[in-house]
Amino acid sequence: MTITVVAICTAAAVPFRGDEQSAIAKQPVSGKVAITSLGLAGDEQADLVHHGGPDMALHHYPRDHHEYWRGELGNHRLLAEPGAFGSNLSTLGLTEDQVLLGDRFRFGTALLEACQPRQPCWKIEHRFGEKAMVKRIMATGRCGWFYRVIKEGEAEAGDELVKVSEGLPEWSMARLFGGIWGTSTPVDTDLLHEISRLPLLAGKLRNKLIAKLDV
């Protein structure tokens, strides 16, 4: 599988709402960008409790979903931007049902590993000016996913994302998202236990699931 990355996006943390800071307004950058274990050079996270860290080094959101959101939101100005949902990588032709937990991709000279789906936060609603946006994302599963960086390197927009090894069979980002945060069916605790034992799952997410199951 080979997919062209149409944009690499970064942002600095800036005032967002009152005293809140955010770096969700990602904008495309040109030229080669260093990819480190903590993410892209020049990219920031304002809330380091809930964002950032080795298992959230890069957020990938499919540009494929923008057309769906146009149907929901109309011709919203943000949907013309590749980083509309706060993502670092924007592509066409790769979605949550095609990416397995542990899939490894070469991107430029870096090596990335898909390690968890993304849970949307309230800042997306504020950014889009749309109430219940988080609920709508959760209901559709159009969430995107995170990579950890196995090998640091550099890449630029236009480079290819090349899958070099398969992750865990049957454990797509779509299935993981539905099992952990899906809202259409009652919580399947057996499934959550199974997910919590997956060896390649992001550590912080695993701990959250274990704590939730122990309540």
Automatic annotation (TrEMBL):
<dbReference type="Pfam" id="PF03473">
    <property type="entry name" value="MOSC"/>
</dbReference>
<protein>
    <submittedName>
        <fullName>MOSC domain-containing protein</fullName>
    </submittedName>
</protein>
<dbReference type="InterPro" id="IPR052353">
    <property type="entry name" value="Benzoxazolinone_Detox_Enz"/>
</dbReference>
<feature type="domain" description="MOSC">
    <location>
        <begin position="27"/>
        <end position="164"/>
    </location>
</feature>
<dbReference type="InterPro" id="IPR011037">
    <property type="entry name" value="Pyrv_Knase-like_insert_dom_sf"/>
</dbReference>
<dbReference type="InterPro" id="IPR005302">
    <property type="entry name" value="MoCF_Sase_C"/>
</dbReference>
